[in-house]
Amino acid sequence: MIFSRACIKAHRVHTLALVLLVSPALAKAQGRGRGPAGPPPTPKAAAPVDLIGYWVSIVTEDWRWRMVTPAKGDYASVPLNAEGRKVADAWDAAKDEAAGEQCKAYGAAGLMRLPGRVHIYWESDTALRVDTDAGTQNRTFLFGAPTGTATAPLWQGVSIADWETMPSGRGILGAPDGGVPSGALKVVTTHLRPGYLRKNGVPYSENTILTEYYNVTKEPNGDQWLIVTTIVNDPKYLNQPFITSTHFKKEPGDAKWNPTPCSSR
């Protein structure tokens, strides 16, 4: 069958009109049932790893610097510069006690290395709380920018948290292959009051930026471990970042929770 040019042109016009007529209805039908997009989940609801519970530190490394107060001048493995060594060599526990600064070793940059227990729980949908029985310290990890004016320097500073979703194998130390474990909690702390990285006066300054990664692993026997990778950047007293990895084992409850005050010795 042979069609004239006029017939072909009319057919094209009719087809175009049909497409224009049907497309809006099709688009509306495709969107039907989805409903409006809801709000994003809260940090608590979006948590990719469960940090909640009581955890006890397992000291398998750096025993001589963590389980007892090291001797004055023993700052091995800490990358102190000349000014940092000068401050450490001048440490005087009695002087700290007289000044009411027994908590200098319990600030955020050194707290997680102290032996003891931590209790982690959600204070709200956007704030994670960490309490320690060593020194009875309290840390709050805020998801999102803090509200209000900047605070004065504090032992625990101001901590901003976020869930780290970077694929394993990229980033800094923390995972078995050297990368950031997927799902780790990243915490950056500033506004710190000057304190000690170790109880024998190894210093960190008010300029310190503390970065931490919290991750949980589970063994075949059911044991759960909390791994805290800590990076201390202090341009005043350190030649380079001071990196440690601290391990905690989960406990069934608070039966062994034993709050103790700060001690300078």
- DSSP E strands, number: 11
Number of self-contained structural domains = 1
Question: Main beta sheet, described?
Answer: 9 strands, mixed, barrel
Q: What are the low-pLDDT stretches, counting only 5+ consecutive residues below 50?
A: 1-33, 168-181
Tell me the series of helices and strands, N- to C-terminal.
HEHHHHEEEEEEEEEE
Tell me the Rg in angstroms.
Answer: 28 Å
Distance between the termini: 104 Å
User: What spatial order of strands do you see in the largest sheet?
Assistant: 1-2-3-4-5-6-9-10-11
Strand content: 25-35%
Work out the helix count.
5
Sheet/helix structural class:
alpha+beta
Helix amount: 10-25%
Average pLDDT confidence is 85
Shape: globular
Q: Based on the structure, what is the oligomeric state of the protein chains? A: single chain
Task: Summarize the helices and strands and which ones pair or pack.
Elements: H1 5-31, E1 53-57, H2 63-66, H3 82-89, H4 93-98, H5 108-111, E2 117-124, E3 127-132, E4 138-143, E5 158-164, E6 184-190, E7 195-198, E8 202-204, E9 209-218, E10 224-233, E11 242-251
Parallel strand pairs: 4-5
Antiparallel strand pairs: 1-2, 1-11, 2-3, 3-4, 5-6, 6-9, 7-8, 9-10, 10-11
Description:
This protein is α+β, with helices and mostly antiparallel strands. It has one domain. 18% of the residues lie in helices and 29% in strands. The chain contains five helices and eleven strands. It has helices spanning 5-31, 63-66, 82-89, 93-98, 108-111; strands at residues 53-57, 117-124, 127-132, 138-143, 158-164, 184-190, 195-198, 202-204, 209-218, 224-233, 242-251. Strands 1-2-3-4-5-6-9-10-11 form a nine-stranded mixed barrel. It has a two-stranded antiparallel sheet with strand order 7-8. Strand 9 and strand 10 form a beta hairpin. The longest helix is centred in the N-terminal third of the chain and has 27 residues, at 5-31. It starts with a helix and ends in a 14-residue tail after the last strand. Mean pLDDT is 85; it is low at 1-33 and 168-181.
